[in-house]
């Protein structure tokens, strides 16, 4: 991979690099000054292409980048950073968006761990409402927009206590009839938070319920301080995911059940949408615990998976591949 940009570098005679915010996978994110708008700071998300990729793959990936960037630039919601520009220079693509100050929820959780305390359930539930509202907005676009990489590290908590869902490296407009989406180029998300069907996205199995799984896994992590077992691990061992209340006894049964309902291994076992799930959670808090099948014997969902042989045949191979993609 090419060297990172350095402070004082200027792109397109406009964006002056201040420093590196972070790196990962196929690129980096930089803090920059916008020299056309005095006082404005922005975040530049950079994607680089691996040198072994063919020209055909790079051209297709770049086409996908412009499609996704155009989609992001049309989004307008308080829970999302505003995308203001996108361009390519050489073998690098850039997405320019608002710089969001504050800690991400991974950092907030780690701070609570150092203080030997759990995050308060009421606080996390207020965050859940904000996140759900953002996802409902994304999923209601035409076509629907899937984020595909929801996790604590991709959620910023601003100084005024608003949440912003960031890092749209895997976002895509959802079109089950369009086989051109380059899932292999985009990646598959972060292992502990990605549903199994996301690793077969080229077969058209992802929808809003895939983001719901990631939301549930994120809440699980925030409230238990325990990284959730991946969907692949759960496929191989149905008992590997501890019940949330065994890790944090202070959790209410309704919230624990709602988390696991969102994290059901098979998409058909999850609520139909984030909106439906949020309504179930609210009703459970007001009236009685959620009536779910999440405590049913493990073989219930195993039977469901057996009805989808495409999942069983490749689960082990995907587990190995996902580990390589996430940590390689």
Protein architecture, described:
- The chain is α+β, with helices and mostly antiparallel strands.
- The chain folds into two domains: 10-98, 2-Layer Sandwich (Phosphorylase Kinase, domain 1), CATH 3.30.200.20; 103-327, Transferase(Phosphotransferase) domain 1 (Transferase(Phosphotransferase), domain 1, Orthogonal Bundle).
- 39% of the residues lie in helices and 16% in strands.
- It is built from eleven helices and eleven strands.
- It has a six-stranded antiparallel β-sheet, with helices on one face. A three-stranded antiparallel β-sheet has the order 7-9-10. The chain has a two-stranded antiparallel ribbon with strand order 8-11.
- Strand 3 and strand 4 (41-48) form a beta hairpin.
- The longest helix is centred in the N-terminal third of the chain and has 19 residues, at 55-73.
- Residues 173-187 and 288-299 have low confidence and may be disordered.
């Amino acid at each position: 991979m090419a060297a990172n940009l350095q402070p004082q570098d200027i792109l397109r005679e406009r964006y002056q690099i201040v420093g590196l915010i972070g790196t990962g996978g196929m690129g980096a994110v930089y803090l920059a000054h916008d020299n056309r708008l005095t006082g404005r700071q922005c975040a530049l998300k950079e994607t680089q292409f691996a040198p072994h990729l063919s020209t055909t793959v790079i051209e297709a990936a770049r086409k996908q980048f412009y499609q996704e960037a155009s989609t992001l630039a049309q989004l307008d919601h308080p829970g999302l950073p505003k995308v203001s520009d996108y361009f390519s220079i050489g073998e690098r693509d850039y997405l320019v968006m608002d710089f969001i100050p504050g800690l991400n929820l991974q950092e907030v959780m780690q701070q609570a761990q150092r203080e030997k305390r759990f995050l308060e359930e009421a606080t996390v539930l207020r965050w859940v409402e904000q996140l759900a509202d953002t996802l409902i907005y994304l999923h209601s676009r035409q076509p629907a927009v899937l984020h595909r990489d929801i996790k604590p590290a991709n959620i910023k908590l601003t100084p005024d206590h608003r949440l912003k869902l960031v890092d749209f490296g895997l976002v895509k407009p959802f079109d089950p009839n369009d086989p051109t989406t380059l899932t292999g180029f985009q990646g598959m998300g972060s292992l502990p938070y990605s549903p199994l069907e996301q690793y077969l996205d080229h077969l058209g199995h992802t929808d809003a319920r895939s983001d719901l799984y990631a939301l549930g896994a994120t809440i699980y992590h925030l409230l238990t301080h325990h990284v959730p077992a991946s969907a692949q691990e759960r496929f191989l061992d149905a008992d590997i995911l501890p019940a949330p209340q065994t890790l944090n006894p202070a959790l209410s049964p309704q919230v624990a059940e709602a988390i696991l309902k969102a994290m059901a291994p098979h998409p058909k076992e999850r609520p139909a949408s984030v909106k439906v799930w949020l309504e179930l959670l609210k009703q459970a808090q007001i009236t009685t615990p959620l009536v779910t099948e999440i405590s049913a014997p493990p073989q219930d969902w195993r039977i469901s998976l057996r009805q989808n042989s495409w999942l069983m045949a490749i689960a082990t191979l995907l587990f190995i591949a996902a580990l390589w993609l996430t940590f390689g």
